[in-house]
Structure formats: structure tokens, C-alpha cells
Amino acid sequence: MREKLYKKCPRCGEKTFINAKTCDGCKLVFARMEFASNKKAKQEIKAGRGKENVIKSREMPKDINRWKLLLICLFGGLVGAHNIYIGRYIKGFFSMFFILLTAILVLLVPSATVANAFNAFLFIPAAAVVYFWFYDMLMIGLGKYKIPVALDMPSADKPVEVVKDEQK
Ligand SMILES: [Zn+2]
């Protein structure tokens, strides 16, 4: 059997040697991914520290089950449930808003009105939501979906460190 020589960085996708400790591309310290947590990421995002402390990882954090996420996406993804579940709140609520708006238009407004240009314009975001729903489902299935993670280090008194800024 051929030995695996390379691995892909879970954040930027750069190829590095299998035993490399940091990513050449984005300086991610691979060992720290062991502490990657989606739960922690959601806390950071809610606290407004998403920009500094959260990265998007292709590697599934320990606290996210891929099959559960796939099921959430399958049944609730049209209204952004999987986005909200992993902490992509803005995208999730946009999905929900446009799908509900479109549904209300289709159900309550006479079809002649729905067909006019103004309403057709509103269908574009809904179409985008449907597209991302299928796209996300495919990515989760393939294990390429990016999930927000933050470091949940054992030393609780220390502030959460930024993964990308490994000082030289
Ligand atoms: Zn990288």
C-alpha cells in the first residue's frame, strides 16, 4: 500500500507534508485542531468575536456529527436550519426570510401578480437559497463542507487564541 505523503489544510486547502506541524499557506497549527469545537465557535460568534476567534474548517470538529448535519440539511436546509445549527446565523436567517417571503407570495398573491416582473425579481433570492441548499448537502455528503470552529483549550483562564497567528 502506498503511504500517504500529503494532507490538505482544513482551513485553506493548501497541500503540505503529512508530518508538517503548520500550514505553509495560512500558518494554521494542525495540532490545535484537536481542540476545535463548533460549540465554542457559536459562543464566540454570539459574543461578537467571530472575526478574531473563529475559522472555517473542512475538518469536522468532534462535536459535530456529519450524518446528523446531513439530515438537518435534508429536512430543514431550505429554511437554513443547517446554517443556524452550525452558527452561520446570517446566512440561515436570510434563507428563512426569502423562502418564507416567496412562499407567502405564491400562496397569498394571485398568480397573475406573481408572474409579473416585480415578483419574479423576488424569486431570484429564493432560487439562490434552493441552489445553496443542494450545494451544501452535496458538500456535507462529500465531507467538504466548511464548519465554523474555535479553539476550546483546556486552560480555561487563557483567552481563546487565534489559530492563524502563529508568531514566528
Ligand atoms: Zn492553511
Structure, described:
This protein has helices spanning 38-46, 50-53, 66-76, 81-86, 89-108, 111-114, 117-142; strands at 6-8, 15-17, 36-37, 55-57, 147-151. With 168 residues, the protein is mainly alpha-helical. It has two domains: 1-58 and 147-163, no CATH class; 60-145, no CATH class. Helix 3 (66-76) runs antiparallel to helix 7 (117-142). It is elongated. The structure holds zinc ion. The site of zinc ion (ZN) has 8 residues, from loops.
With helices defined by DSSP (H or I, 4 residues minimum), what is the helix count?
Answer: 7
User: How would you write the strand order of the largest sheet?
Assistant: 3-5-4
User: Which residues sit in consecutive blocks of at least 5 with pLDDT less than 50?
Assistant: none
The average pLDDT value, as a whole number, equals 86
| N-to-C order of helices and strands | EEEHHEHHHHHE
Distance between the termini: 37 Å
Radius of gyration (Å)? 20 Å
Task: Explain the layout of strands and helices.
Blueprint: E1 6-8, E2 15-17, E3 36-37, H1 38-46, H2 50-53, E4 55-57, H3 66-76, H4 81-86, H5 89-108, H6 111-114, H7 117-142, E5 147-151
Helix pairs in contact: 3-7, 5-7
The structure holds zinc ion (ZN).
Zinc ion binds at residues 9, 11-12, 14, 23, 25-26, 28.
